[in-house]
Amino acid sequence: MDPLKTLFNLSGGYADTQILMAISQLDIANHIALGNSKSYLELAKELSVNEEVLLYLLKNATGLEIFHELEESEGVFRHTPLSIALRDQEYRDFIMMKASIYSLRSWESLFSTLKSGNSDNKTLGFNSIWDFLNNNKEENEIFNRSMTTLTRRLGPTIVEKSNFMNFETVTDIGGGHGFLLQEVLRKNPHLKYGINFDIKNSGDGNTNEVTSTNVDKRYKTMVGNAITDEIPETDCYILKHVLHMFKDDVVIKILKKIGEKLKSNGSIFVYELYDEELKNQKSAMSHFYLHLMLVTGGVERSNKRWREVVQKAGLQIKEIEHIPNSVEMPVLAIIGCGPSGLVSCKSALESRLIPKVFERIVISVIPMIGQQRCVVNNKLIDLQKQLSSDNTPFIIISRNYADCVLAEKIHVVQHPITEIQGKTVWFANGESREIDHIVFANVYTYELPYLCEEVLRGLEYNPNDKLMPIVLHKSTIHPTLPNIGFVSWFSSAMFPIIELQVSWLALVFSEDLAPLTKEQIAEDKT
Ligand SMILES: C[S@@+](CC[C@H](N)C(=O)[O-])C[C@H]1O[C@@H](n2cnc3c(N)ncnc32)[C@H](O)[C@@H]1O
Fold first, then answer.
1. Could you tell me which of 385, 273, 377, 276 has the C-alpha nearest to residue 328?
2. Which sequence ranges are marked TM in the entry (predicted)?
3. What are the pLDDT digits (tens) for 184-206?
């Protein structure tokens, strides 16, 4: 390793940020059709940008595994899993939020924050990030959409773990777009009303989300500062990703204020990133620690620190829980303060993917490369690693597959692949072939390496049964594990069927369909 080269490259990290930002802002990923390629000349014309600069931007992006430049035609690019992800507004929003001007300026103030321990927004031209967002409509929209994306993924689990049954009214302090509060109201028809109390002008960003969907009539908004203004009086308070933006003294002040309003049977639910988990992650998420300090002056807290802070506010923690890490982010802690307690759930940390007590988890054998939304077959990953970087796998659903097989353009080989060297693929029977492309994953073997022996026995799992290795009710649920759903666990599972299974499981797990009894499941294993 040449230290000069390494340090030179590392110190250009800002370039990667800006490249990602430009790609997202121009929405380049949606200008290249899936499965197709496009030249930078065509792209420059469509995007009305300079050809030469675009060419080098795209070449640099390939170094980040975003787009792939065809070897045979310079300046022509096709998709990679990451560029495919960037076709999705959600992912572009996250990039634009992280690389927005207030974030960049906050990072410029690293040295000053290092000296003072405080976020230095004032010298950067705004009082706080909220002040900045209030005055920048577009940035505010992006911020709110990103927060809502996170909440949309985490919300249902959070709501499920928090018991609102004893309450009639609820305030979401710093509720942003209001998605979580909507979810709480939707799942708790007994609640009289919920107030989204947020410092940000709710006129634009906040109501955007809730007016576009059917706003619950019980949903109200109130603009206010939780530190200086009067807080509404309700039975229960929610604070999600809010208190981590403040130093201990401010958190104590806010909690004290809420505590004064809290009735004897009231509760405060605090949802924050799980500090202990963050510490184990070297790169991306530990940036987040610093990012939070620089942008907001706040900090992620350990369980111990939470206990101290809550105690100083004159409140008592009933329970700290770790909920499953469903959005590839560190596990959240739920803290219930005040006289009444929280429901319990097992720590996902103890058992990573599959908790000892089964939470509601759907296992699919369909690998979603690049999106990490489901469990990926380990063997496929091993093989993927052997592919040259020119051959980044991508997902495609093709109508022409059967025709290509008939025309012998695709050769079906029934032996497992053991090795890939350049264009040569070796099979388990010792034969090898020269190939142009590999079509993976049109046939699956079923493996459950993440489930323990005892559970597999309970499932009557038979790995040699290639048609249906586990016999399940509606091919999705087993009587011994009614809280775990299996999707596509039978031969020839096609997307429409998978879609139906997922929808059905979602209904069952969300209890929109009456929960199944063990007897029902056992009776009808088909
Ligand atoms: C990180 S966002 C979280 C939003 C939402 N709870 C969620 O998880 O999607 C923090 C929210 O706190 C609000 N906020 C910041 N300071 C506040 C204060 N002093 N009083 C009330 N709300 C505040 C911001 O406007 C923003 O909507």
1. 273
2. none
3. 999 999 999 999 999 875 443 34
